[in-house]
Amino acid sequence: MNTFLDLAQSRRSVRAYRPAPVEPEKLRYVLEAARWAPSAKNAQPYKLVVVSDTEKRSALSVAYPKPWFRDAPHVVAVCVKPSAAYVRGHDGMNFAWVDAALAMDHLQLAAAEQGLGTCWIGAFDPAAAASALRLPDGWQVAGMTPLGYPAAESAPKPPRKPLGELLQP
After folding, report:
1. Helices and strands (H, E) in the chain, number of each type
2. How far apart are CA 79 and CA 129, in angstroms?
């Protein structure tokens, strides 16, 4: 890959993983990328929870019961503490979820750069996920992703809207 745009265009949502472990240096690399994501007022109101143990991944799969989710060698949950986030004074918007999304985006793009697969999971049972992760009071799971080597070539990326449709005249 030569440019950021090449990386963004080539990243796919992976739904089949090889059981091969991810090298510690690659895991650290993607976690560092998440750490360097921008956050409102640099509050970084999130924690990254890496679930590598088979039993813990199975417990977490109660929140999202797809087999490929627990078959990846790791699951990373981005958890937020809204009370620690920047809140915009004009309208009270809490930026915890935006900050978490930016961290997840950085993590997923860094994973793709390293030849690893991810898939943003948002359709999970939040109470079951928080329980499986044993989150302290005030913390919530913003999103999760399996992390590992793709088992096969990913399907083509779904088409995107033309840029002209996304620009406000």
Report:
1. 7, 4
2. 10
What is the tens place of the pLDDT at every residue in 36-88?
999 999 999 999 999 999 999 999 999 999 999 999 999 999 999 999 999 99
57: amino acid identity, one letter: R
Q: Which two tokens stand for residue 57?
A: 């991944």
Instruction: Set out the domains of the chain in order of their start, with CATH numbers.
Output: 4-149 (3.40.109.10)
Q: What is the rounded CA–CA span in Å between residue 122 and residue 14?
A: 14
Structure tokens at 36: 């360097």
CA 102 to each of CA 18, 28, 65, 168: distance values in angstroms, whole numbers, following the listed order: 27, 17, 25, 23
Confirm if 17 and 149 have CB atoms less than 8 A apart: yes
Instruction: Provide the 8-state DSSP code for 132.
Output: H
* pTM, to two decimals: 0.95
Which residues touch 141 (CB under 8 Å, ≥6 apart)?
Answer: 63, 77, 78, 79, 124, 126, 129, 130, 133, 135
